Amino acid sequence: MRTLILFGLAVLWPLMSAAEEAPLRSLATADATRGWEAVGRIDVGNRGFCTGTLIAPDIVLTAAHCIFDQETRAQIPAEEFEFLAGWRNGRAAAYRGVRRAVAHPNYVFEGRDQIDRVPYDIAFLELDHPIRLPSIRPFETGPDTVTGDSVGIVSYALDRAEAPSIQDLCHVLGNEPGMTILSCDVDFGSSGAPVFEMIGGEPKIVSVVSAKAEMGGKKVALGSKWSARLRSCGRPFRRVNPVSSRCRPAAGPRSSDRPPRARRSSSSHEARGDMGRGACRPCSDARRPLPMRR
């Protein structure tokens, strides 16, 4: 995986160099995870994994490049995905399959090094059955950020595939059209992770992790902006083109009464991966994360 070098944005670093970034903190216990169970791991068959977030009982938000095959560039069949809500130490708070996956209408998968795709690197997964548990509350979305905003991130990654980690404080270093540059700590497997801002005392999603990059010799994260056009795209699945699986305008309510999917045993997740697409092993259990784009 190569690192994207953002020469034109290096001027932003002096403005933020004094900011104190919080270290990653593992959410490996029930108490630590409480309130974050709607963030989960998306397993993609035996290909790898990404991070995703429940934003409605049956809708998961993630990165668009997570739903494409790196080699063939074709969209991965929905039945290969499984959402593991609050995955921690071999167990999930809820297990769900996926009925269909929808990428942003302007997203075209062209490999992992296409920085111009970052603004559209967003996708929605429709679960095969809604998650309606009191302990798993979908997250709401917030407005776009501005340079200097304090944000946080919850993600899985190469070295933390068995439990999510939270970075309580990182910062928005700058904004480009449709893209946010962040000081947050991300790695392979963090693709699709939610970037939160505290608004009215509640964490709200303001960006979705797309890639990691280098700016002024320092590591940064690149996120897709959560704008009004993306929110409308994700009123999901009311109407979807069955061929292209691209978002279309809503066309009325849809019944979500579907029988629950049988829970898989933990052994069924062997050889899975993490964020993005790729071949980086997250830990020693033979699971490998989907490589995060840099």
The average pLDDT is: 77
Low-pLDDT residue intervals, each spanning 5 or more residues: 5-15, 236-288
Shape: globular
Number of strands: 14
Class of secondary structure makeup? mainly beta
Following the backbone from N to C, one meets helices and strands in this order, namely EHEHEEEEEEEEEEEEH
Helix run count: 3
Fraction in beta strands: 25-35%
Helix content: under 10%
Tell me the radius of gyration.
17 Å
* Lateral strand order in the biggest sheet: 9-10-11-14-13-12
Distance between the amino and carboxyl termini: 7 Å
**Major pleated sheet:** 6 strands, antiparallel, barrel
Folded structure, characterized:
This protein has three helices and 14 strands. The chain has helices at residues 13-16, 30-33, 228-233, and strands at residues 4-5, 24-26, 39-44, 48-56, 59-62, 81-85, 94-103, 123-127, 150-155, 165-176, 179-182, 194-199, 202-215, 218-225. Strand 4 and strand 5 (59-62) form a beta hairpin. The model is unreliable at 5-15 and 236-288 (pLDDT under 50). The longest helix is centred in the last third of the chain and has 6 residues, at 228-233. It is mainly beta and 294 residues long. A six-stranded antiparallel beta barrel has the order 9-10-11-14-13-12. Strands 3-4-5-8-7-6 form a six-stranded antiparallel barrel.
